[in-house]
Amino acid sequence: MPSIRASQEERDARKIVGVNAETVTNVTSTDFPGHYPGEDHEWDLEEFRKTFRVQFHKLQPLDASFSLIGIDASIANAFRRILLAEVPTLAIEYVFVHNNTSIVQDEVLAQRLGLIPLTGSPAGLRWLRQYRKPTDEDPEGSGVADNNTVVLKLNVECTKADNYDELDRKGEDDPRLLYKHAHVYARDLEFVLSGRQNTFFDGEANAVRSVHPDILLAKMRPGQCIDMEMHCIKGIGADHAKFSPVATASYRLLPSITITQPILGPDARKFARCFPRGVIGLEEVSAEEAAREGSGYEGHEGEKKAVVRNTFKDTVSRECLRHPEFEGKVKLGRVRDHFIFMVESTGQYPSDELFLESVRIMREKCAAMKRGLANILR
């Protein structure tokens, strides 16, 4: 039977998830995303290249927003989950406490240390291999080596400031002025080079360090000290949240607003107030529109009409659907294949590199699956 081809209007309608006052429509997908009975949907790389687009909306070192257009939700969600749980990062895993006389218990301080986001030379972080922990099946594990373990030390002691007596006479009560190391910060962590790490992590700019040096770890008073050694390893967010490279990675579908009948005058101004600023604009009805029969603008030349300006800013609050004067005049929805990603990096990777890392991991997964299928068919 010859295949049929859906009209452009029908293909556009398939992309919209309808948002009504109390329901959501057109939410179901086919068994094979993007495939419909009787139609030819054979995979075509050139066609995919024409329809798939990436648009960046914001790009900052720790914060990025971009759109993936022309893919299925399963693929977009796979990238989101990889960002959260499968991009490897470096974090403190083992803490060896030599001495801790501060008021913070050993296990609480170790937990704080584990959650410090670390950064360093990008080439060095890529060079490091994942440490394989000993198990019942593999009692030796991978063993501690220079290419899988990074050593940090924390050795601080609180003492009185050199001018303590003078400050005390003046009535100074700020402990940060009265004492040395009254507050212990993440910047007090000391990186210890070992073996081949000197090739990648040499120098202050390349050393392994905290992304945020002002993270407060503990408070001390004279006579108290902390002496610890920490071993950092690479891991993934699926093992522990401290290894997740993102503070958040989420997406939303692009809102769709279609004005089906003219909204004029005071109603237009009220309609604009139903949306965040910049979503709906007001324009004057032109003479050409007023003269066009069946346009709905006959006899309204010069009046203000509501027009859609920027749906990207909309939150789909459905506020306009609460007002009877807009009933039947507007359709709300979301574009099924337009995903607006928000990615906030914890600092080990720049925000724009994070998505590229998720793509690399996805390709590795696909390659592994292809090899597995090939082995089955042999």
Features:
378 residues, single chain, alpha+beta, 18 strands, 11 helices, 6-stranded antiparallel sheet, flat
Would you write up a description of this structure?
The protein is α+β, with helices and mostly antiparallel strands and 378 residues long. It has eleven helices and 18 strands. The chain has helices at 8-14, 45-51, 73-85, 106-114, 122-127, 164-169, 175-178, 197-201, 265-273, 287-291, 351-377, and strands at 16-19, 24-25, 53-60, 63-69, 89-100, 118-119, 150-157, 159-160, 179-180, 183-185, 190-192, 209-210, 216-219, 225-235, 246-259, 280-284, 304-308, 330-345. The strands form six sheets. Strands 1, 2, 3, 4, 15 and 18 form a six-stranded antiparallel sheet that branches. A hairpin with a 4-residue loop joins strand 1 (16-19) and strand 2. Helix 3 crosses helix 11. The longest helix is centred in the last third of the chain and has 27 residues, at 351-377. The mean pLDDT is 91.
Show the helix and strand layout.
Blueprint: H1 8-14, E1 16-19, E2 24-25, H2 45-51, E3 53-60, E4 63-69, H3 73-85, E5 89-100, H4 106-114, E6 118-119, H5 122-127, E7 150-157, E8 159-160, H6 164-169, H7 175-178, E9 179-180, E10 183-185, E11 190-192, H8 197-201, E12 209-210, E13 216-219, E14 225-235, E15 246-259, H9 265-273, E16 280-284, H10 287-291, E17 304-308, E18 330-345, H11 351-377
Antiparallel strand pairs: 1-2, 1-18, 3-4, 4-18, 5-14, 6-12, 7-11, 7-14, 8-9, 10-13, 15-18, 16-17
Helix pairs in contact: 3-11
- The share of residues in helices is 25-40%
Any idea what the radius of gyration is?
Answer: 30 Å
Biggest sheet record: 6 strands, antiparallel
Q: What is the average per-residue confidence, as pLDDT, rounded to a whole number?
A: 91
Number of helices: 11
End-to-end Cα distance, whole Å, is 34 Å
Shape: flat
Number of β-strand runs: 18
Proportion of β residues? 25-35%
Order of helices and strands: HEEHEEHEHEHEEHHEEEHEEEEHEHEEH
> Unreliable segments (pLDDT under 50, ≥5 consecutive)?
none
- Please give the oligomerization state of what you see: single chain
What structural class do the secondary elements suggest? alpha+beta
